[in-house]
Amino acid sequence: MAIAVALSKLAGLGTSPISSIPNVMSILTPLTIGQMTIIFMFVLIGLELVFLRREFSPWALLQLIPSIIFGGLIDLFTDWLRWLPLNNYGAQLIATFISIFILAWGVYFEVNSRTILMAGEGLATAVAIATQKAFPRAKVWCDASMVVVAIIIALVGLHGLVGVREGTILSALITGRLVNWYTDMNPKLTHWLHIKA
After folding, report:
1. Residues 6+ apart with CB under 8 A from 87
2. I need a labelling partner for 108 at 20 to 30 A (CA). Which of 24, 157, 172, 182 fits?
């Protein structure tokens, strides 16, 4: 998933909702998108604690491990992919779509392996439990909230929709559908992942 975030960052048409705030903050501050992602994941885990209170499990702190690795890999892939010629809108759009397909593949494995969730999914789970709503609805609410916050930060700090663009909307609309499609198209792999989990 880190390579998907890096590719969407370099394409410049906006990242996925979960990466929209770190992306805008990386433009606004000297920190990289990977460093901002790590900080943001820590904030999300803190929000899980706020929503769950006494139901918060110390095991949820294990989300810190993949969060740190994820942030580091985003910066690594961003450096590696800088050679890509993304200097026109067509190339940027293609790179954005490729990043969405890769991201959906990563989410498919994350969700179906039933191992440690990333903090974004962890927060959505916490919201679902606290509000007694279905996970998909909580996930949409969390993603939409992140995009709104990213837009506000961009408008206030950068005086425009910088870092949140059509790629963010495309990712929000397509990623979930692709995850479902991957699940339907790979029943044997999905079953195997569930067994291994």
Report:
1. none
2. 24
Please tell me the distance from the alpha carbon of residue 99 to that of residue 91, in angstroms, as a whole number: 12
Task: Report whether 27 contacts 15 (CB < 8 A).
Answer: no
CA angle 123, 137, 141 (to 5 degrees): 60
Amino acid (1-letter code) at residue 179: V
Are the CB atoms for 175 and 16 separated by under 8 Å?
Answer: yes
Tokens 């998907």 belong to: 4
State the DSSP code for 60. Answer: G
| Cβ-proximal residues to 154 (8 Å cutoff; 6+ apart), any chain | 24, 160, 161, 162, 163, 164
pTM assigned to the model = 0.87
Rounded CA separation 162/21 (Å):
11
Convert the pLDDT of each residue in 98-117 to its tens digit.
999 999 888 877 777 767 67
- Does residue 14 contact residue 163 with C-beta atoms inside 8 Å? yes
Domain residue limits, the chain: 2-196
What would the two tokens of residue 83 be? Answer: 């050679």
On whether the CB atoms of residues 55 and 44 are closer than 8 A, the answer is: no
